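Many introductory courses stop at the sequence. We go one step further.
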Amino acid sequence: MAIDPATLKMAAKAAFAVLTDEDARRKVAIIAIAPLAAIILLISLFFYILTMPLAALGGFFEGDNLDAVQVARADHGYDQFLDPLEYEDSGDSELSDIVFADGVTDVVYYNQADARWKNEPYGLDTIGAAGCGPTALAMAVSSLSGAIVDPLQMSRWAYANGYKCEGSGSYHSLIPDGARHFGLAVDYASSSDPQKIVNALASGKLIVAIMSKGHFTKNGHFIVLRGVTSDGKILVADPSSRSRSEQEWDLPTILDEARKDAGAGGPFWILE
């Protein structure tokens, strides 16, 4: 298709005017550079979020909004972290070789703060900080299966099999899947099943429970329900506190503070 000479001449004049006019050159440069700058900005933002997710989250939430997100995570038990400053037990020899024999089933007690494994890695965290799930499961398996599996062994198994949730603790599926792997039968109960929970404990079964903020934790925390007294009080084995493990607890407290939106069939896993 032939281009009209007059049109070609006008286009040449326009191009020459752009090249000789400083404002026009500036506009052309901006138009040319803008898409490239946008692409660079998007790539930078992507890598920033990828490498600094918590800081990026802070950028989207300001002041009270970010605090509200953190409070909501704690209220619902999304984080299973124990601040070392909050340890109620020191990790000394008093935490070793303890068996609770005041229920139907004798329970081997382990504490995640025990010096033997407190500082051992659990994924990117430590057993002392984030190992309540493996520690609770280790108590149940060691008490019911006849095989002794301590928190260090259980944490290594949990991590190797994908049950460590980095930045939070353990996936809830660790409890039923791990229990079956070590030869235990698993049943489930909710907070609306108080009689099922009491009957299970009275018959010698153990229950691993995931708790949200309350008497047992400021965040999320796995504990073991290990028995029920003649007057209906609940006995527990708390992986982060021997003192709480030696108290008797009201069943409504346990039911109210159990995590309401637990996954993998929780918040109560009945093991035998």
